[in-house]
Design goal:
The strands form three sheets. Strands 6-5-4-3-12-13 form a six-stranded mixed β-sheet. A five-stranded mixed β-sheet has the order 7-8-9-11-10. A two-stranded antiparallel sheet has the order 1-2. The protein has two domains: about 15-70, Arc Repressor Mutant, subunit A; about 110-405, 4-Layer Sandwich (Purple Acid Phosphatase, chain A, domain 2), CATH 3.60.21. The protein has helices at about 15-25, 30-40, 40-55, 80-100, 155-175, 200-205, 210-230, 260-270, 320-335, 370-375; strands at about 60, 65-70, 125-135, 180-190, 235-240, 280-285, 290-295, 295-300, 340-345, 355, 360, 385-390, 395-405. The protein is elongated, with a radius of gyration of 29 Å. Helices cover about 35% and strands about 15% of the residues. The protein is of the alpha/beta class and about 425 residues long. The termini are far apart.
Length: about 425
C-alpha cells in the first residue's frame, strides 16, 4: 500500500506515483503531455506530483517560480559519499545506543564522552589512545623458588609493574600522537584485577585479603589514571568483571558484575575522581561492555565467558579465543551489533589474531607466569599488557604490548645447585 493516500480517496501505490514522475521526465516536464500519456486529467497528474513530492519521490525545480520538471540528479565524488556514509554510521551507532538505554539493555546509564564521538576531522586526523589492563592479580604471591626463578610476584612488584605500564603508555602515546590529534585516553579494565580468594590455595598464600587487594589496586591504578589525564587531558575508564574477582566460590550467571571485586574496584576509582569532568567511567552490570568510538564500536570482555575452553594444544589458547570470539560476534550480530574491535584477557597470552576484518587484542598479564601456569606446562610469557591507538580513518592504526620487567629480576632463569654438587 502507499505510504500516503488522500482521506476518503482510493489508495495509490508508490509505483503509481513513480510512474507519474517518470512520465514527467520522459515529456521534459510538460504536465499536459505527461498526463495524456498515462490517460489522466491534468489536475489528477498535478495531485499525484504533489503527493510524490511529499513522499520525497519528486523534486520540482525551484529556480524562479515552481516548475513541473524533474530536478537533475546530484553528482558527487567518492570522498563526498564516504563522508556521508561515515556520518550515517555514526548516527546509527548513537540511535542503537539510545534504543538500548530506553529498552533497559544498559542497566547502568552513563554519559558517553563527546570526544569519543565527535566526527569532525582535523588536518592530521583524530585519534584516541587506549590501554587494556587486565589479569593484574593484585595480592597474589608467586614464589620464584617454586618455578625455577622465572618470575616472582607480590604486592610491591605489582605496584612497580603498574607504574611501569602507565609510564610506558605515556611515552609510547607521545610518539604515536605526533601526526594526529589525540582526543584522550581510553583505559579498559578487563577483569581479574585482584587475586581474590576463589581457591583454597590462594586464601592460604595471598599476601593480602580480598578487601585489601582492592584498596591496594585502586591506589596504584588511580595514580596511573591521574598521570594519563595530566598527559592527554581526558580519560574514559571502562570496566568488566573477570573470574578471579568474584565473591562466590563458583561462577554465577546472574549478578556476575554485582558480586565482583572488579566492579567494586571500578566504583571506588569512580568515587576517587568524582567531580572531575575530564575523567569518566563506564561501569555496567553485565559481563561485556560496548564502547562506541568514531562511529565504530569496541567490545570488551573477559575471555573466561566466551563459550570455549581449552588451549593446551600446539596452538595454545589462540584457537579457543578465535572460536569464542566467533560465537561472540554471532551473538552480537543477532541483535544488530557488529564490533569492530574485541578486547579480552583471562588466558595470560598476548596475541593479535583477526576474524575477517575484525582485530582481536588478547591480553597477557601483569602477574606473569605462576605456579598454576607452570603446573599446566604452559609457555612462559613475560608480564605484558596492550596499548594501542585508534584513528578515525584507519581505526586500529597502532598496537604494542608493553613488557613489564622488574629492576632486580634475574636476566636468565636460575637453577640452584646444592652445595657440593659442583665438586
Amino acid at each position: 500500500m502507499s505510504r500516503f493516500a488522500k482521506s476518503g480517496g482510493p489508495r495509490l501505490t508508490d509505483d503509481q506515483y513513480l510512474n507519474a514522475v517518470q512520465a514527467m521526465r520522459e515529456h521534459k516536464g510538460n504536465v499536459s503531455r505527461a498526463a495524456a500519456s498515462l490517460g489522466l486529467a491534468r489536475s489528477t497528474m498535478q495531485n499525484r506530483l504533489k503527493r510524490a513530492e511529499a513522499l520525497g519521490l519528486y523534486q520540482p525545480d525551484l529556480q524562479g517560480e515552481k516548475k513541473d520538471v524533474i530536478a537533475p540528479l546530484e553528482v558527487h565524488d567518492a570522498a563526498f559519499w564516504r563522508a556521508k556514509y561515515n556520518g550515517i554510521e555514526l548516527e546509527a551507532g548513537r540511535l542503537r545506543r539510545a534504543l538500548e538505554e530506553v529498552a533497559g539493555v544498559r542497566s547502568l546509564p552513563y554519559r558517553e564522552p563527546d570526544w569519543l564521538q565527535t566526527p569532525e576531522q582535523g588536518k592530521t586526523g583524530r585519534a584516541v589512545l587506549g590501554g587494556l589492563l587486565s589479569d593484574v592479580h593484585d595480592g597474589e604471591v608467586v614464589d620464584e623458588d617454586e618455578i625455577q626463578g622465572v618470575n616472582a610476584y607480590d604486592p610491591d612488584i605489582c605496584a612497580y609493574r603498574l607504574n611501569e605500564y602507565f609510564e610506558a603508555a605515556i611515552v609510547i602515546g607521545r610518539r604515536w600522537s605526533v601526526d594526529c590529534e589525540v582526543q584522550g585516553f581510553l583505559l579498559c579494565l578487563g577483569g581479574d584485577m585482584v587475586s581474590g580468594d576463589i581457591h583454597e590455595e590462594l586464601t592460604r598464600t595471598n599476601a593480602l585479603v580480598a578487601h585489601d587487594q582492592v584498596q591496594h589496586c585502586r591506589d596504584h591504578i588511580a595514580k596511573g589514571i591521574a598521570r594519563l589525564a595530566s598527559e592527554f587531558g581526558r580519560v574514559h575508564v571502562v570496566s568488566v568483571p573477570g573470574n578471579h574477582g568474584r565473591t562466590t566460590r563458583k561462577p554465577t550467571a546472574k549478578l556476575r558484575a554485582d558480586l565482583s571485586y572488579d566492579t567494586l574496584l571500578a566504583k571506588m576509582l569512580a568515587d576517587r575522581f568524582d567531580g572531575n569532568r575530564e575523567i569518566t567511567f563506564q561501569i555496567g552490570r553485565g559481563k561485556d561492555a560496548v564502547i562506541p568510538i568514531f562511529g565504530r564500536s569496541i567490545l570488551l570482555t573477559h575471555f573466561d565467558a566466551i563459550g570455549t575452553r581449552g588451549g593446551q594444544g600446539f596452538a595454545g589458547p589462540m584457537l579457543p579465543i578465535l572460536r569464542g570470539c566467533k560465537k561472540l560476534m554471532e551473538q552480537q550480530g543477532s541483535v544488530s551489533r557488529h564490533p569492530d574491535l574485541i578486547l579480552g584477557g583471562h588466558y595470560h597470552t598476548t596475541g593479535n589474531p583477526y576474524l575477517g576484518q575484525v582485530p582481536i587484542l588478547a591480553n597477557g598479564s601483569v602477574i606473569g607466569s605462576n605456579e598454576y601456569s607452570d603446573d599446566l606446562r604452559a609457555p612462559i610469557e613475560k608480564p605484558q599488557q596492550w596499548t594501542f591507538l585508534l584513528h578515525d580513518r584507519w581505526w586500529l592504526r597502532e598496537r604494542q604490548p608493553i613488557i613489564l620487567t622488574d629492576l632486580d629480576a634475574p636476566v636468565l632463569p636460575r637453577v640452584r645447585v646444592p652445595a657440593g654438587w659442583s665438586k
